[in-house]
Amino acid sequence: MAIEIFSRREQKYLITRRQYVELVERITPYMRYDKYGMDGRYSITSLYFENAKQDIYFETKNKLKYRQKLRLRVYGDTDINGTAFFEVKQKHKKVVNKRRLVLPLAEAYRYLNAEQEVDLSSYQTSNPQVLREIDHFRKLYQLQPEMIVSYDRHAFHGVTDPELRITFDLNLKCRSHDLALEHGPYGKNFIDEDLVVLEVKVNHSVPLWLARNLQELNCEQRSASKFCTSTELLHEALDHESLGMETPLIGGGMDGTIKQLI
Length: 262
Hints:
The protein is an alpha+beta fold. The chain contains 6 helices and 11 strands. An 8-stranded antiparallel beta barrel has the order 1-6-5-4-3-7-8-10, surrounded by 5 helices.
């Protein structure tokens, strides 16, 4: 979990729990459990950021060729002194890039709650350069904490291909109140409890054995944005038609503009 800068391709599927159980059995000869958690199982709780114009939502919903999100994430149970991961997740032409730093959760809150400019070098972090990029992103988009998304993850790595990673996310929940990560994973279910988000993560192409199993089990490849689905549930008053959602915007924002990090 400590890798700080990496790039890969991701394919998402929305499957049933029955398909999940069957697929886990089929991939066992080729995969090993993720080294974190118990048998590759652990919880993830993430604080996502947004602005008043919902720019991040629109960039993601309208599938801009270049889009990004900011999130603060913890794994498993933690407290204010636990370890957190602050990251910018960027996507360009189906390639996902992540730039991440590690810092104490209390230090992340100190940064977020600062009422005036503070020297970024004063923060205790694993990567000062990534913190500068995060700070630039926050200011460019005027981002504020928006909601918490949490789920249980079952993760696997390839035995002979360590770059192959398969994750199953279950019990997906969100909340827009109590934005304290140390309070753990709870909230409203934003995807049917019988459904599982499957992500296949590769550097190049999906191996043939896996592609065949996905096809045989009728796994449906589907874009399943946790951020967008949670936003829509938590903002039920959001009028999609009046915001032009039926006709994809050229840009990410409601004004049709495209913002990019420099």
